[in-house]
Prior knowledge:
By secondary structure, the chain is mainly beta. Helices cover 7% and strands 63% of the residues. The chain has a 22-stranded antiparallel beta barrel. Strands 3, 4, 5, 6, 7, 8, 9 and 10 form an eight-stranded mixed beta sheet that branches. Strands 1-2 form a two-stranded antiparallel sheet. Strand 21 and strand 22 (392-412) form a beta hairpin. The longest helix is centred in the first third of the chain and has 23 residues, at 2-24. It is globular and about 85 Å long. It starts with a helix and ends in an 18-residue tail after the last strand. Mean pLDDT is 81; it is low at 1-39 and 719-745.
Amino acid sequence: xxxxxxxxxxxxxxxxxxxxxxxxxxxxxxxxxxxxxxxxxxxxxxxxxxxxxxxxxxxxxxxxxxxxxxxxxxxxxxxxxxxxxxxxxxxxxxxxxxxxxxxxxxxxxxxxxxxxxxxxxxxxxxxxxxxxxxxxxxxxxxxxxxxxxxxxxxxxxxxxxxxxxxxxxxxxxxxxxxxxxxxxxxxxxxxxxxxxxxxxxxxxxxxxxxxxxxxxxxxxxxxxxxxxxxxxxxxxxxxxxxxxxxxxxxxxxxxxxxxxxxxxxxxxxxxxxxxxxxxxxxxxxxxxxxxxxxxxxxxxxxxxxxxxxxxxxxxxxxxxxxxxxxxxxxxxxxxxxxxxxxxxxxxxxxxxxxxxxxxxxxxxxxxxxxxxxxxxxxxxxxxxxxxxxxxxxxxxxxxxxxxxxxxxxxxxxxxxxxxxxxxxxxxxxxxxxxxxxxxxxxxxxxxxxxxxxxxxxxxxxxxxxxxxxxxxxxxxxxxxxxxxxxxxxxxxxxxxxxxxxxxxxxxxxxxxxxxxxxxxxxxxxxxxxxxxxxxxxxxxxxxxxxxxxxxxxxxxxxxxxxxxxxxxxxxxxxxxxxxxxxxxxxxxxxxxxxxxxxxxxxxxxxxxxxxxxxxxxxxxxxxxxxxxxxxxxxxxxxxxxxxxxxxxxxxxxxxxxxxxxxxxxxxxxxxxxxxxxxxxxxxxxxxxxxxxxxxxxxxxxxxxxxxxxxxxxxxxxxxxxxxxxxxxxxxxxxxxxxxxxxxxx
Length: 745
């Protein structure tokens, strides 16, 4: 019976894909007596080197902020303690084809400030080739916010409201407006939006620190693009700005230990006194990210021959302040009443990052075996990152990267081959400053990293039959420490017994990535991968007495094993005979189906007995009467498993979400009502396993259960037959994604 179900599932997906393929052979839109026909997007697509998740047409993904949508993707694990992983690979996060250069806490805040309805799709490139920077590490998650520019002025409004009701009522809203137009000379686009969110965070760190935080986030963004058609060539100008303004109000309590020097002793001697405390603190974060990009695309009579030049400049600055309103302290073994005092400004930290790059990409077909293509290019990038704490510039970091690549693609009967290499030269240096025990400023040079390295990649695909492939991949990559891991300043809440620091002396991580995968009809797949890492950057949390330390270190060697499988199951296979199913003309947006994903992951670290864990995701679509679509999504990650230097005591993922969607006004208006984490099961409860020091129990609970309404309205244009033009936001070498990352079409 199981074999029959699987076989029929594959057959059903084949008919779906065949129907879509027929649509793909037409132009993007076909005008027939006033009717505009567009091709149907696929919810999930499996390509040889990537998985593509469509956000624009999936209300269960685009009804909140981007971070909430990302956490629902099958195979993706996102945690507060170790960042994001997809199918066992650490993710380097890109926005419209360019790296964000931020990780962990700063990344989460940035993604929380972006409405999910501003995202068109997300591509996870699991096997980046030579044309991608070697610094892509294990894999790339490319968040694509492009929309299409149209002839004549058109506009789309998207709005979202949701609320939570834990200890009190909290609201979240987001609004965005997308304007598109073009004329005979140029096309332009403007996308603006805002996001306001109230949320809660409860934490417990080994009983030494218990806190309740009210969080208020305000995010704003504007994305603009202009394109000029110069014969066959094109010139694109882009400017984006993202701004976040967040406030946190924290009530905390716990236990600590006071260290006091005994006078007149040389060398100094100290005494320690245990105490308990209650405190109130207010923190404020202000961050702005700006990007400007100029792209010139040279095109030739041979359509597959391309030459692109691109210059980009990014500036990102942030400021974090924490002010202690009051602290009540009671010392042990005394009967004295608590002492109340205010420490005022505890933290005042700033950072400034500037990145400039210039890259050239060229590709053309060549006569190789049964046909092939050659791609080559180069990149120059300069990054500067400075941090300051209360007037002291404690980090000056500079990185200069020069790179070139060559990649060949060829076909031979049923085989497809890719062979390439990328050469990169790194020059990393800097200065760090800190106060010693005598309150004197000490200056030291960072550990330099000045190396030239080659990063090969190879891929072979055997086409068993149409749309059924077996693929084997290998690549070597490097991951440079993220700026938030290097930052010596604390940019999160600090209690009287906690120390949170980055490590400016972190070394880059070298990856060897191997993968084998069988995929069928774009949807179904089964695969195994292993990622071998040297100097993997990891977070450790340890305890020393009544003090907690949150630090970043390098793991000398580790391996991450990952097995995963995805299978679509149309419900009609349980009710209709095969002969009747074969007569159907399928549209995935109009059928009832279930998409099942399961993955097993194990982190192999020396001297650490980590157990593997399973990841499960089930997405179900049911078409109700009146064309109302019901979408259910369940995610679960098994507990008692090792995740770097942590053991999950409860599942990282344990969430059940429901979304009801209805389209009105000839599909111009889409309305969705949703409920996320209905059973309130999403929680992070782990125990750390630091290589040195005592382990720490940690529990974080956000107000993940929320309910809301989402609206998307395409404001009609005067000319109802206005045709779509190609995208102009972030467009570059590979079709309309505008950056280094191709669409995978």
